[in-house]
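As a point of orientation, let us examine one representative protein, giving the amino acid sequence and backbone structure tokens.
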Amino acid sequence: MDGSNADRTWIVNGGVGGRGGEGSGTGGDGGNGEGPQLTVEDAENILIHVSGDLNFLWTGNSATQRDIIPQVLPRLDDSEPWHRLLGAARNLRQSVVPAVAYDASFSPRLPRSSSNPEEYSTPFSSAQTLVLADFSSVNGGWRVDKHIHFKGDVRNIGRVNIVGFGDAGLLISRNNGDGSFGPSELTVADFGYNGGGWRIDRHLHFLADVTGDGLLDIVEFGEDQLLIRRNNGNGTFQSAMRVIDDFGYGQGWRVENHPRSVVDLTGDGRADIIGFGDNSVWVSYNNGNGTFQSVRAVIDDFGYGQGWFSTRHPRFVVDLTGDGRADIIGFGDHSVWVSYNNGNGTFQSVRCVIDDFGYSEGWRVEKHPRFVVDLTGDGRADIIGFGENSVWVSYNNGDGTFQSVMRVIDDFGYGQGWRVDKHPRFVVDLTGNGHADIIGFGENSVCVSYNNGGGSFGPVTKLIDNFAYSGGWTLEKVVRYIANIYR
């Protein structure tokens, strides 16, 4: 095997190990023991032919350790002895990848090293894998209009579990840590459609840490009160505790008019309660001992009575300053409005930060999703919106102001066929670098645009021909999330 940089066609015979460019084609570095490996030194735009058992191949330019060959073959064909590895390529940080058998999961483990830490150890799968025959409309009788699904680490062991509020109550499927899940178990015979009489159109369910111990507790906005079940730390929960006689349906709070959230407003690691009422924003602070303070109005704005409607004006409670205390941001008729958290139980006067992303500028809830999420890795949330024909961003300056709106991708928009009622889009960190990326469940496939970290996004790339609308994945029947299930 010729390792010269001038030779752009490389041949690996037998696929029995060895390191390209280092002489022998046998033996060599076996990495983590999952198969033979190939390293391509200082080569790019090369074509590699493989014979024998070397079925997986992904190579990069070792000079930058980031430039990856987009594909080895223009199409996937099981009859060929080589395949392309979808996803994860941008974040490998190295040019050595194990060669493993092409199987149903199509998701090999990557070697762990100082240059390839834990979070990069598993690339995206190129085929769906059944991990649990439950929590679905077919298996279990779960209905989107009756039951709530969550993902969350309810045992504080670093693994995301599947949590669902079903007919009988709260059910949990524990993450086994190997990509599989255990059978669902009825953990709480309450908060369910039949077990407790909870209704999606009247009552809200949350998982949040209200004690500061790192465990997710259950928070429920019920008929006449707010209820909490503390997490015991082993996947079970304590008896329901009534903490506030407010924020409920009986006090006039409506799901369609009054958004409510459970989020840390003080920076102490314990979630507080905040709700957008008729004429004010109301807060109940967490005392840290299992009790909550009396409900108080903190801003006479952002309410239904001031013309803020859920059908027109998205509102978020998120940290905009990086101090660990959530602020309030709303997309109004003409602008984006913010009220910063003072950190002492009060909020600043509402101010306009951008004259865009509003209803009058053509942004519609039913057409244009908007998110407030950290795109730069500085701990301060930025603004991103999926517009008519492009994705638009306004970066947070960190001083209470935002930059001018800029177009970052001409895709994922209404004009490209993306629909709110058919194609969920998420803005979430897929690479572990602290910069949120864009991922969308489209008509025929799942697509991604990776955040370059410098104010721009990479080209839209297809990850997998599955989980899509044309394959029967509809919002009326199924729920989709983005989660790291391996750690």
